[in-house]
Write a structure and sequence with these properties.
- The complex is a heterotetramer, with 2 copies of chain A (344 residues) and 2 copies of chain B (323 residues).
- Chain A has one domain: 3-Layer(aba) Sandwich (Rossmann fold).
- Chain A is built from 12 helices and 7 strands.
- Chain A has 344 residues and is an alpha/beta fold.
- In chain A, strand 6, helix 8 and strand 7 form a beta-alpha-beta unit.
- The N and C termini of chain A lie far apart (64 Å).
- Chain A has a 5-stranded parallel β-sheet with strand order 1-2-3-7-6, with helices on both faces. Chain A has a two-stranded antiparallel sheet with strand order 4-5.
- Chain B has 323 residues and is α/β, with parallel strands linked by helices.
- Chain B has 2 domains: 180 residues, 3-Layer(aba) Sandwich (Rossmann fold), CATH 3.40.50.970; 127 residues, Rossmann fold (3-Layer(aba) Sandwich), CATH 3.40.50.
- Chain B has 12 helices and 14 strands.
- Chain B has a 7-stranded mixed β-sheet, sandwiched between helices. In chain B, strands 9-11-10-13-14 form a 5-stranded mixed β-sheet, with helices on both faces.
- Chain B is globular.
- Classes of the chains: A alpha/beta (344), B alpha/beta (323).
- Chains in contact: A-B, A-C, A-D, B-C, B-D, C-D.
- At the B-D interface, helix 4, helix 6 and helix 10 of B face helix 4, helix 6 and helix 10 of D.
- Bound molecules: thiamine diphosphate (TPP) (2 copies) and magnesium ion (2 copies).
- One thiamine diphosphate sits at the interface of chains C and D.
């Protein structure tokens, strides 16, 4: 980030700020893509307000580590190094997207970066990290696998089944619950009688913590500690408290929560917090941060242009990838009908 | 009155809740949020949070809770936000709800409704766009209703809420904003009966849910070139009303079944096999299955649209049959 | 029980002993039914060693309360007042059994006694009590619903989903985990890293206890307390420690556990303990207890004779009860084939 | 060599584990206990508890764990003790394992096997006796193998463990003690190919799993009265090999499909529909579906036995077809 000519761009906090800012700007552009009518559908879940969770945990991961995410996973993927243009293209359902336009926002993945997949099933991606943990143990790879999910996923039984297995087998895995206080319209205290979510993980024998997501450095610290333990065979659970700044998906205006709460909630802004800290500790100044932000704007604007300019996938690609390429593709219904009516 | 499919469903819930105080509704976001597709909007204001129950995101336990409630005197209507989530509930649905009456020697039934919605049309991807009615149809003990029209949305939902056995009630996400005429006093047909929506001597199209509208649109188009189709809306897949269908197929000698359910071992397979068996001596052509492709649904709108039957495919197929 | 001429037959402990003894003897007769080749199959799970759980919890329940059980539920049903002859007939798959021979040992139920059903799916019967709890609340019936399950069911996510709902809604329900230390061949410490099972329930906000099942009076006390709370809207969880005296099902000889452990485990014998206590506290003497036991032997012998003597269900009953009697029965495959081949 | 179906399966696991160190087995009681039906007996002694992994009773997470393991380089063979428990795993199976390759644009596959067993025969009741292969067959992305013979038990399991895509492998609980000849060096047929087990010109019986033996027994009986049946073992239901079947059906002009899977919208529906379509001009009679009754299975041995096809029913049906 050559633009930050002043001050200490080697600072870790600066790097975290930059990444968080990129995430936020990317998400804003996703919103614009939707408004432009260029997204594939409206099931777009923005992670604005949750940037410290993505950046805090991911910065504590190593190369070779793997992860799965929930449906609100853009930020996490970016924090692990995703190319925002290919992400945006995927979100637009285009051929050059990460998943060739088949997956979209909720089913994005990249094996090269260890992204075992986002999931549109609440809790659906969690047990895969237990499997990745088994692989790591079996192959002695030293890799940790991290499962990201929302507070809503604590309603899903598979989380407990997975945590129990991980603890029993001492696997190198970390369960990360991004507690943005809401599962769609349901505030966490209307989804459970005990909102201290980490207590459940502790009861299954995991190392378990809750951290406030306001300060990314706190998230980094907690993540490092837990991941270090996980790598040694002590699986862990980390709940990160934050606030979902906007609606559940693009069309939701959150009529079920009142404005005072929203205003208050949005004060837990990890991007702003990091910015203020950078300035307060004299690592960066306002101007250089503005310059950085402007640069990010340009970068992210380009992703939208890119996505819009790309092609839809070819219609014939529909029958590809149901099975391995070595296998015959399923017979299209139309072909079948022709064949049968032609008595062939 | 003219209202939307969504509104008709909502009205059915309201009317039946007023008629029967044992009815409760439970599911994710059915209360404050008003339902992901708005079907239960404001019901919580009218009936309170004891009868309109917001649940955690726990599909298996939602269905299991409904089972227990139904066994102890309530009439639960559980909502599964997307039929795609049925996988999490299949044990409670197929091993519990469907079998309790039988396993316990007829001592008790499970009079519950599982309301959900399915189908393509929102670029919602592989896990939010499926048509999974075949899993249900293949499970003895479960009734299965799939209304295609506004009036059926209302009447079939009320009828479902009066059934002695568990009913899976699958709406189509592409129909919620469709408008239509509703006569609250008169149902299209009794529960479990198919309806002949259009008559024509050249071929019979057997279908249900959103594909009814595609079939009707296709039929109008076909009529322009002199092909007249009978179009039958099955309405419920269990009970499956074959009596209504048979005379039409026997007369026309040609049948097409149209469904979004994936072709292999799905609804089209049952309908195809059954028509082939029961009308064997009358068929001029094989029964043609116009069904969902044997693939997952893509988020790409182009691929999504072509993963299930389109009116064009129905037209093309009918033309081939009558060529 | 007129035979116990001496001492205080009004004693609660005496009643509990008698019930526990009846359960044990019944289970022994189930084993004999199998050996005689008269049971329907071999999937018979005896609750010997777990009698205090059944009697302790059930004696704390009221009329009108309901319950579900797992596959090892004979004792619980007897403790709630079941007719052992109709039970045995059901286990033999006979027409006069509780479920007309369709259910068998693992699917026994009786609506009259509030038995919402045994279940062959581990964890399968648990959420039904949440539903029963909703009914009780809605109808203001004052009833409590109790879900009985084994330690193995703590591996099933649906338990946590159900406990979470119960706690959230403050329902009158009690979750009872009969911890006989094994799920088939897997000892509890090989199924989880934290064997203090009640801690999980506590983490979801339930009142939660573990009690030793050796002394039925301890189980009664704990159950009363928790059920009282549940009736007032504080759902609860009770783990009862005991030992599975014999194999998992009739054919299992438990080769996976060593004899020393078994010998030790079987020392936790609630029937013997109650017997000793009755004698030690001078409530009953050996002779009168022997007389009682003999009378129970006679009672339970008769159940076997009854079951053997009963008829198989009629073949046509196969098509009944799939749906309500008001509905047409499914068409038999044979009828269908005849019809189709006859072109009718 | 002559061994049992159970032993053949066990040997396949051993041989493939020796051949490929990435293979792991996980499931309930697969280790110390040796598997509920003894298929993994003593494997833990040979391969250790890192490769033979006893799990808690958590079917959903077992399948989900296998998915994650398969995506990260292992070759998991997960065991589901009874296919009846598939309901708990359907989300992981149908929404994850089956769709991952597709949703992620072909980036990665899920090379796992889900071994399980089904069918009647042990008075195990409604929740332990089902034949649920149709749920799997109806799910694009999942392969489905159901071996009927000792030699197929061995070879098909090894082949399944080499597939690039998820395979559900369903054994039949009634076959474990069956003995047969095994040639470890030679498979009956390649993966995905049906096998013509018996030839006869009068009718074709298409079947798989235990019903193959019922069909063969019935055929021998029928031969005594001069009726000669071709019997085809499908072996895998996905891939579904119709090429092998068609010439036989076209020649005989009569086909019967035999399966324990419940009739409605099940395997018999697909086979019936497909044969009817593809052999339309050749059929003398409707394709007859001899399938499981549309009811749950009772614990009563009498009712249980008659809830699925018996050799007697096959014989009776064939006689009627040729009367
Ligand atoms: C199994 C399942 N149930 C329900 C849904 C619908 N749904 C999508 S996101 C969501 C809320 C999830 O909340 P949380 O886990 O807290 O994640 P957040 O959206 O807050 O990031 C719900 C109910 C789903 N996609 N999958
Ligand atoms: C969902 C499911 N998984 C597995 C089984 C097979 N099974 C039957 S009983 C049992 C062990 C159950 O252990 P526990 O819950 O402790 O009950 P116990 O047998 O000890 O009474 C298992 C694995 C089953 N019936 N259902
Ligand atoms: Mg949330
Ligand atoms: Mg146990």
């Amino acid at each position: 980030m050559a633009i930050a000519t002043k001050k200490n761009t080697n600072s870790e906090l600066y790097a975290h700020y930059a990444l968080m800012r990129r995430i936020r700007t990317f998400e804003e552009r996703v919103g614009e893509l939707f408004v432009l009518g260029q997204s594939a559908g409206s099931m777009l879940h923005l992670s604005i307000g949750e940037e410290s969770a993505a950046v805090g945990v991911c910065s504590a991961m190593n190369e070779g580590d793997s992860f799965t995410t929930h449906h609100r996973g853009h930020g996490i993927f970016l924090a692990r190094g995703a190319d925002p243009s290919r992400m945006m293209a995927e979100i637009a359902g285009k051929e050059t997207g990460y998943c060739s336009g088949k997956g979209g926002s909720m089913h994005i993945a990249d094996m090269g970066l260890g992204h075992l997949g986002a999931n549109a099933i609440v809790g659906g991606g969690i047990p895969a990290i237990v499997g990745a943990g088994l692989s790591a143990r079996q192959k002695n790879s030293g890799a940790v696998s991290v499962g990201f999910f929302g507070d809503g996923a604590t309603g899903q039984g598979i989380l407990y089944e997975s945590m129990n297995m991980a603890a029993l087998w001492g696997l190198p895995v970390l369960f990360v619950c991004i507690n943005n206080q809401y599962g769609m319209g349901t505030r966490i205290d209307r989804a459970t009688a005990n909102t201290k979510l980490h207590e459940r993980a502790a009861a299954f024998g995991l190392a378990a913590l809750t951290v406030d997501g306001l300060d990314v450095e706190d998230v980094v610290d907690a993540s490092r500690r837990l991941i270090e333990g996980a790598r040694k065979g002590k699986p862990a659970f980390l709940a990160i408290d934050c606030y979902r700044f906007y609606g559940h998906a693009r069309k939701d205006k959150s009529p079920y929560r009142d404005e005072a709460e929203e205003v208050q909630g949005r004060q837990k802004d990890p991007v702003l917090k990091a910015r203020e800290k950078l300035i307060a500790t004299d690592i960066m100044n306002e101007d250089s941060l503005n310059a950085l932000d402007a640069k990010i704007d340009v970068e992210m604007d380009a992703t939208v242009d890119f996505a819009i300019g790309e092609k839809q996938p070819a219609l014939t690609s529909m029958f590809k990838d149901v099975y391995d390429p070595s296998q015959p593709e399923p017979e299209p219904v139309r072909t079948r009908i022709n064949r049968i009516l032609a008595r062939q | 009155m003219e209202i939307t499919y969504r509104e008709a469903l909502r009205l059915a819930l309201i009317d039946e809740m007023n008629a029967n105080e044992d009815v409760i509704i439970l599911g994710e976001e059915v209360g404050r949020y008003g339902g992901a597709y708005g079907v239960t909007k404001d019901l919580i204001k009218q009936f309170g949070s004891d009868r309109i129950i917001d649940t955690p995101i726990s599909e298996a336990a939602i269905v299991g809770t409904a089972v227990g409630a139904a066994m102890t005197g309530l009439r639960p209507v559980a909502e599964l936000m997307y039929v795609d989530f049925i996988g999490m509930t299949m044990d409670q649905l197929a091993n519990q709800a469907a079998k309790i009456r039988y396993m316990f020697g007829g001592q008790i039934g499970v009079p519950m409704v599982l309301r959900t919605q399915g189908g393509t049309g929102r670029s919602a991807g592989a896990q939010h766009s499926q048509s999974l009615e075949a899993y249900v149809m293949h499970t003895p003990g479960l009734r299965l209703a799939m209304p295609a029209t506004v009036t059926d949305a209302y009447h079939m939902l009320r009828q479902a809420m009066q059934q002695p056995d568990p009913v899976v009630f699958i709406e189509h996400k592409g129909l919620y904003t469709m408008k239509g005429e509703l006569d609250v006093d008169k149902a299209t047909a009794p529960w479990g009966k198919a309806k002949v929506v259009r008559e024509g001597d050249d071929l019979v199209i057997v279908t249900y849910s959103r594909q009814l509208h595609y079939a009707l649109a296709a039929s109008e188009e076909l009529a322009k070139s002199g092909i007249e189709a009978t179009v039958i809306d099955l309405r419920t897949l269990n009970p499956l009303d074959f009596e209504t269908i048979l005379p039409y197929v026997k007369r026309a000698g040609r049948a097409m079944v149209v469904t979004e359910s994936v072709l292999t071992a799905g609804v089209a397979a049952e309908l195809g096999a059954r028509i082939s068996e029961e009308c064997f001596d009358y068929l001029e052509d094989p029964v043609v299955r116009v069904a969902g492709e044997d693939i997952p649904i893509s988020v790409s709108p182009l691929l999504e649209k072509n993963s299930v039957p389109t009116p064009e495919l129905i037209i093309e197929t009918a033309r081939m049959m009558l060529a």
